[in-house]
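Input/output pair, single chain:
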Amino acid sequence: MSAIIPSLSLDQIGPGGRVILRALRGDRELQSRLMLLGLFVGGAADVVQTRRRGPTLIRVRNTLVAIGYEEAKTILVDVYE
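Output:
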């Protein structure tokens, strides 16, 4: 079984990280936008690219999604190694 690192925000995960989404914080509008992009609690994602204070590029169900830095801070994830 893979080791699990306790929940971190998505902006703290480097490229190659495999994550499970644990919480979508923020206002209702932000949560709705994230869900429309395919992000939901319990869903898996792979971090493809990160930039310090810039967007995070993740792969969700074979789709690349760019998440802004401030939005990435509102997404809590568990990392699978």
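The longest strand covers residues 18-24. Residues 4-80 form a domain with the SH3 type barrels. fold (CATH 2.30.30.90).
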